[in-house]
Task: structure prediction
Amino acid sequence: MKNKYSSSFPMEELIPLLSDLTKKYTSNDSSSITYDKARQLMTSILYSIDQVAIIDTHEQTHLISLKQSAYEAYNLGLSLAKEKIQTANNLFFHISENFNSFKNICYFETVMKGMPGFFIKYDVVYDAQNHILTLDYPLIQPLPGLMGIDLIVVYLQKIHLEQIFLSKFSPEVIISMFSNYHKKHYELIHNVCKFTMRNAIGCILLDRSFYELAIQEDELKHLNSIQRNLTIEELELKLKEVLKVLIKEEYNNNEDLHLYLLGDIKDFAFEFKTGSDKNCLEQIFPTPKKNSNKSKVVFIDGELMDDEKLRNVIEEFRDCQLLSDKLKLLSEHITSLGDLKEILHECFYEDEFTEVFNLLSDIEKAQLFREVRIKKRNSESLYEWEEAIWTYMS
Amino acid sequence: MNDNMFAMILANQQQQTLKKLIDSNQYTEKFGVKLSENEAIMLMQSRIENLKKQERVEFNEGILPKLIFIFCDSPFIYQDNYVQTIDALQEIFYLYKNESMDELSDDELLSYMKEHFDQECQGSISYLEDTCLDKFCRELRERSRGFIGSNLDEE
Result:
C-alpha cells in the first residue's frame, strides 16, 4: 500500500524534490552527493509522501482525487510526519509518568533510555525512514513493515497498552512470579506482559483471583486436567473466552488491549498443550521454588582477650617446658581463634602444631584453613603454623 | 539509486550544462583557452563516467563550469593541454570528494587544488593527485570524528 502511493508519481516529479533536498542537505556547498546519501534522501522523500497514503486509506479523505503534485504530497506528508513526532512525544511523556519495568533491564532501557534518544536524534527531513532504535524489548506481536516514526508511534502505543494491563497487578507479585521463572529474570529479553497475562489466565482457570498470578505446583495438575480433553483449537477458543471476560470485567472492555493480547493466545494454547503433554507446565506457569534445605554455616569467633592479658598468657606459655602443659594452658585460657593465631605464632613450633590442631573442632579448623587459602591465593607469605595447617588439612 | 534514475538526472542537465560550458568561453578566451562544442560534449561524457565510477549523483550543471572558471587562468594551462587538464582535474575532483568523506565543500576542494596545482605541483596532475590531495585527505580523515560508536561513548 505504502509503496504504491509514492510510486504513482513519475520520476520526473521526484527528481526535482531530490535536487532541492540535496541542496538543503549540503547547504548548497556541494554539487554532488554519494549514491548512498542520494538513496537515503530519496527514501526519506518517498517515506514522507507515503504518509499521505496512510491518511487516504484510514481517514477516507480525498487527497488522491485532488491529483496533488509530488511536491504537494511531500510537503503534506512531511507535516504529517512531524505531527506524528509530536504525538509520539506526548505518548512517551504519558507513559513515562508511571512507567514500571518490573526490574526488567531490557524493558527499562528500551523505553526509558532509548526513546528520549530517539526524539533527540530522529531526522524527519533527511532520514525519515530511520527510526535509529533497535527496540530490543519484544512486543507480543512484532511490527513488520513499519519504519521511521510510524514504527515508533505504534511501538509506544503497544507499550502503553502493556502498562495499562500491568498496572492492575501489584509490582511485587509480578516480580515474584518472574523470580520463580528465572533466577536472573531481570536480564531476560522477553515480554513482561505476555507472561503476566498467561499466569493471570491460569489463575482464572483455577477459579482464583487473577491478581494473584502465582500458581502452586499442585495446581499444575488441575491445569493439566483442564486441557486434557481439548484439542489445541478448542483450548485456544477457551483461552480467548477467558481473555475476553478478563478484558471486559477488569479493563473496561478495552478493545485495543484485547486485540493486542489476543496476539499471544495461539502460541499460548500451543505451549500450554505441549507443556502438559511433556509434563513441563512449570515452564509456562512458573511455580514458587521450594526452599532449599542447604544450610549456610556461619562461623562466629569468640571474644578476644585484651592486649595486656594476652601478653601475660604468652609469657606463661613461654615458661612451659612440656607440650602437655602448653595444651592445658591453651584449653584453659584461649577462647577465640584470633588469640589462638597469636599463640600459635609466638609459642608453638614444628611438630607441636599437629597436637594443637587435634584439639580444634572441624569448623574451627575449616575457618583457619579458609583464611590460609585466601592468603595463598593472594600470594602472601605464610607463618609456620599456617604452612602446618595447610599441610594438616590437605 | 537505479541506473534509470541516474540517467534521467543526467539527461535533464545535458542541455543546460552544454550551454554553460560554451558560454564559459567568453570568460576563458581572455586567458587564451576555449572549448569547441565537441570538446564540451566530450567533457560532459567524461563527467558522467566519473560520476558513475565514483558512485556520485550530481544535480544542476555540475562542477565543470566552476572548475573551468577557477583553473582557466592557471599559468600551466594553455590551449593544447586545456581539455585534457580539465578532464583530469574533474576526475580528481570527484575522487577526492569521496576520499575526503564529503567533509570538504566544492569551493574548499577546488581552491586547495588550484593553489597546489599552481605552486607546489607546478602544473603536475599526478603530483597533485598522488601527493598533495592524498596527504590532505588522509589528514582530514584522521581529524574526523571517527565511527559513531566511539562518539556515543564520548557523549
User: Anything to note?
Assistant: The mean pLDDT of chain A is 87. The longest strand of chain A covers residues 32-34. The beta strands of chain A are 32-34. Residues 375 and 381 of chain A are 7 Å apart (CA to CA).
